[in-house]
Write a structure and sequence with these properties.
The complex is a heterodimer of chains A (about 375) and B (about 600). Chain A is α/β, with parallel strands linked by helices and about 375 residues long. Chain A has 16 helices and 15 strands. In chain A, α1 packs parallel to α2 and α3 crosses α5. Classes of the chains: A alpha/beta (about 375), B alpha+beta (about 600).
Chain lengths: ~375, ~600
């Protein structure tokens, strides 16, 4: 197995825009009209045809959503068969699927294995009943525990768990409980996201109305640092702001493509694609997506060509979210910007403050630096 | 000539001068009611918003009086603020009479008196007009009493009006005709014309506003400015209707304009006398002086890239404001900018606002300063207004600063606090005068530097808006001075340096640090703010860093969304000034500039 994605081999993302119920914090595009799944799948197949000449090979595939795990086995099998018919997936391709714990049973999980899925990312969020209720999750803590055990039993050796902290009403003890339960299953990968609410989500609207407030900066900082500490002690590598992995082998290869300006193709409503300085995204509407494709058109809502300055900014903010940081000479070559020369003064200051370090030709955020990575990218 | 009247309206600020002018204009019917824009003489937004008239203007009003004859009433508008008293005096010398407008609820105020004195110096007929008589708080009897006791005018000659509601306007116009004398002068004598204003017209160059005392001026004449003997050829003359109206000639007694190919307003000096080049008058009209700035500050663009734009803006701005002076300046912290001189603090505010608004710039101002006088060990004497030029203390044997005489009028109950304020501001030689029951006039000699900080605001608060303030610069007096520097993370921010009185240095240092702490947002690292005199740190404060500022999740491949947010933040950051590695917002500079009492 490889440590990381082969440079410049593209990744494939497929967005399954369906959920049984919407969670109040989530800003990904999804609808609950499950009867439209067949129409969506038909459109998706056609969309793959549209790109089969432009893209030939993917070494990561990520089925996300929405809730891909609510598809039937046969529907998923159709998707994978179509992918393999349209594109080449080399032998060690990372194939991830996102799942809701409530959807996982042993036979479904075994079927996923048969299809070649080798990485399972389960949306656990919390093991606390009240927190799950606040987040409007449709599964229970018991279902979550069952799902993880079933995944292991089915033979998954690369399991990722998503958790959320900083939920109103959640104190440090409650969060650490959830974290320790998660760690007890020895998942290969953990994503610990601080709850952030976009204004147009239902929880976001409630927050603006003043129904509740999110923890303040100091508490958020404590959550962040404590999480980092505990997972470090448990043997995890904190390789990105919110991402932890037991070994470099288990870093999400697909997500790293997003962070490295590696090409990726996103299919399905609202999905984003990026190739050589161009980014485009599909309509964030299932019906518009379907009608465009039925009319023989690519369902692209907008396309942008990034300027060098924009690429620089992206590379800075994405790079400074990772433990590896930014390779200074590669950055200079790729983005035409000598960071050391141009930012000498502020970098010196940031080093003195222990927010960044320069090691082996890389500009790296320290742990405190990761906590302020957004600001670091604005230097 | 006997059908001409030249007059002005003078008043304390907010006593309704512009509104009265509007009503007079409306009454004479030279403009349709439906085209009427309130306060038509104040044609700059800022003037209208602030309710003050910065640039004076003139307008000729046709009026058929009750005697059945037609008259031309030249209404010459005057600026309504102490910073512009010279301009007021020049406008007044173009008139034979004034309407002295007094707010019926506010009564006589400091500028009412200051303006009255200016009118008296010019031997003008003075008609007291009590305005806002319909206000519930109006106290007409008290004002009539004040006209007698405080102004020394015959109270029986007063008029009453409500400019807002158009009450009493006809009587005012009638009084202008009957009581203000017609101009005197000889159209055949050598040309003698007084410049009382100038405006820049982008198509025609400078438009000179003038009053002819003797002689006649026509298109094609060669005219000479007596202050500098500059000669120009007259291209156009005319009078002020709502817009300029060509007349071909202007004669003694008339008020009008001359266009003569003068490029900038700075080439024109208010109060200067115009005569014919070939047949000049013997002596210029009296009262001319060059206006000298008394408050100085440097201005810098927030974005260094905007320096060129600022440079163009300043140059264009000067075309229309001869009392604004500037020269290039540069700051270590803020880059290239301009050192500017202003007539006073209000003038400074107005200039800043106009540059920002009319030229779409974001500016930072250094702490305003007065012009200090230094005497050196070798006997040299130097005037310095820029803290950046503060000399080596070892070479100084004497430091002096300008003093003003402040005249304040207020209800008696505020007196104690005002006396305290003046004392705190190092005021000396105070006098007290009971002008009428319950009202006092208090004067004090105060260093100008103390007044340009927060004097106005505190005075207004103490007197609850019922006090008024006026000042004259009187002389220079010896004073112990020091240079206060502000350091941000050890780096001196030269634009925040201030020349201060030694006794107040520590307090000023503490205040500056606290103000900056309130305005500078938390950043990634700790920020130390210090006040220093020489090497001695006299005040310090720190801003702790923020510790958490990172988005948890980049939404899948949607990198664009987050980038757009960062681009927005980056733009916001560009509007701040980087000092070392600290971003300082414009508001922080302003906060220090307004340093004062909370």
């Amino acid at each position: 197995m490889k440590d990381s994605a082969t440079p410049d081999v593209a990744g494939l993302y497929i967005h399954i825009p369906f959920c049984r119920t919407r969670c109040g914090y989530c800003n990904f595009y999804s609808v609950t009209s499950l009867f439209r799944i067949p129409a969506f799948l038909a459109a998706l197949m056609k969309e793959m045809d549209m790109y089969s000449r432009k893209f030939s090979i993917f070494d990561t595939v990520y089925i996300g959503g929405g809730t891909p795990s609510l598809l039937h086995v046969q529907q998923l099998r159709d998707i994978f068969q179509k992918i393999e018919k349209s594109f080449v997936l080399p032998p060690n391709t990372e194939i991830t699927i996102e799942a809701n714990p409530a959807d996982l049973d042993i036979s479904f999980l075994k079927a996923l294995q048969d299809m070649g899925v080798n990485r399972l990312n389960i949306g656990i969020q919390s093991f606390d009943r009240q927190i799950l209720a606040f987040l409007e999750r449709r599964h229970t803590a018991e279902q979550a525990i069952y799902a993880i055990e079933a995944a292991r039993n089915a033979g998954f050796d690369n399991i990722g768990l998503d958790l959320i902290y900083g939920v109103p009403g959640q104190d440090m003890a409650s969060w650490l409980d959830t974290l320790s339960v998660a760690v007890s299953f020895h998942p290969e990968h953990l994503s610990c996201y601080q709850l952030t609410l976009d204004a147009d989500t239902s929880l976001g609207i409630r927050r603006q109305k003043g129904d509740f407030s999110l923890p303040g900066d100091d508490l958020q900082y404590d959550f962040f640092m404590k999480t980092a500490d505990i997972l470090k002690d448990a043997g995890y590598i904190h390789y990105e702001v919110s991402n932890f992995s037991r070994d470099m082998r288990f870093f999400s290869r697909h997500n790293q493509k997003y962070w490295n300006h590696t090409p990726y193709l996103g299919l399905g409503p609202g999905a984003h694609s990026f190739v050589k300085g161009q980014r485009w995204w599909n309509y964030r509407s299932l019906e518009k997506y379907i009608t465009e494709i039925e009319a023989g058109k690519q369902p692209v809502q907008e396309m942008e060509s990034l300027t060098m300055e924009q690429l620089q900014l992206e590379a800075l903010y994405l790079g400074l979210r990772t433990k590896r940081g930014i390779n200074i000479s590669k950055f200079a070559g790729r983005y035409n910007c000598d960071l050391i020369a141009q930012k000498e003064k502020v970098l010196k200051r940031l080093q003195e403050e222990g927010l960044v370090a320069i090691q082996n030709g890389c500009l790296r955020p320290t742990l405190s630096g990761l906590a302020v990575a957004d600001s670091l990218s604005l230097i | 000539m006997k059908n001409i009247r030249n007059f002005s309206v003078i008043a304390h600020i907010d006593h309704g001068k512009s509104t009265l002018a509007d009503r007079l204009i409306q009454h004479t019917g030279i403009i349709d009611d439906r085209d009427f824009k309130d306060q038509i003489l104040d044609n700059m937004d800022i003037e209208r918003e602030r309710g003050i008239t910065i640039k004076s203007q003139a307008i000729a009003l046709p009026y058929r009086a009750r005697d059945g004859k037609d008259y031309i009433l030249n209404l010459i508008d005057t600026p309504g603020h102490v910073d512009f008293s010279y301009e007021v005096s020049r406008s007044l010398s173009s008139c034979e009479g004034v309407l002295l407008l007094i707010d019926a609820s506010q009564g006589v105020q400091a500028q009412t008196i200051a303006n009255l004195y200016l009118a008296m110096e010019n031997d003008l007929e003075i008609i007291p007009v009590i305005n806002k008589i319909d206000l519930p708080s109006a106290d007409v009897e008290r004002v009539i009493e004040q006209i007698d006791s405080e102004l020394g005018l015959d109270p029986s000659g007063h008029l009453k009006c409500s400019a807002k509601d158009g009450i009493g306007i006809e009587d005012i116009l009638e009084a202008v005709v009957q009581r203000i004398p017609p101009p005197k002068g000889d159209p055949g004598a050598p040309l003698t014309a007084l410049i009382f204003d100038a405006q820049y017209d982008p198509f025609r160059g400078t438009v000179i506003h003038c009053r002819l005392f003797d002689g006649t001026v026509k298109k094609g004449d060669s005219i000479r400015f007596m202050s500098n003997n500059a000669v120009y050829k007259v291209e156009e003359v005319g009078i002020f209707s709502l817009f300029r109206k060509k007349t071909g000639k202007l004669s003694a007694g008339e008020v009008g304009y001359i266009i003569a190919g003068v490029k900038t307003v700075s080439d024109i000096h208010n109060g200067d006398t115009i005569t014919h080049d070939t047949k000049p008058c013997d002596v210029p009209l009296p009262g001319f002086k060059e206006v000298k700035p008394v408050v100085f500050a440097s201005i810098y663009p927030i974005a260094s890239d905007d320096y060129e734009d600022l440079s163009v803006a300043v140059e264009k701005y000067t075309l229309n404001d001869a009392s604004f002076v500037y020269q290039k300046d540069s700051s270590v912290a803020l880059g290239q900018g301009f050192r500017c001189g202003f007539l006073g603090l209000l003038h400074l505010d107005v200039v800043q606002e106009r540059l920002e608004r009319e030229y779409d710039l974001s500016l930072i101002l250094s702490v305003p300063s007065v012009r200090y006088r230094f005497t050196f060990t070798d006997g040299r004497v130097l005037d310095i207004d820029n803290p950046a030029d503060y000399p080596d203390p070892a070479s100084i044997i004497k430091t002096e600063e300008p003093y003003i005489r402040a005249t304040m009028m207020m209800p008696e109950r505020g007196l104690g606090s005002v006396i305290k304020l003046c004392k705190e501001k190092r005021g000396v030689n105070s006098t007290l005068n009971y002008t009428s029951p319950g009202r006092v006039e208090f004067t004090s000699e105060i260093p100008l530097a103390e007044v340009i900080y927060d004097f106005y605001d505190r005075f207004k608060t103490i007197t609850q808006g019922y006090g008024s303030f006026d000042y004259d610069v009187i002389d220079y007096r010896e004073s112990a001075l020091a240079l206060l520097d502000i350091l941000v993370n050890g780096e001196k921010v030269d634009a925040l340096s201030q020349i201060v009185h030694r006794d107040g240095a520590r307090a000023r240092g503490i205040m500056s640090c606290e103000r900056l702490k309130e305005e500078i947002p938390r950043q990634m690292f700790k920020i130390a703010i210090q006040g220093a005199i020489g090497r001695e740190i006299i005040s310090r404060t720190t801003i702790p860093p923020f510790r958490k500022d990172v988005t948890a999740k980049c939404y899948g491949g949607d990198i664009t969304r987050k980038r757009k947010l960062l681009e927005k933040q980056k733009k916001g950051k560009k509007r701040m000034k980087m000092v070392g590695s600290v971003s300082i917002p414009q508001s922080a500079f302003l906060a220090v500039l307004k340093t004062g009492h909370n």
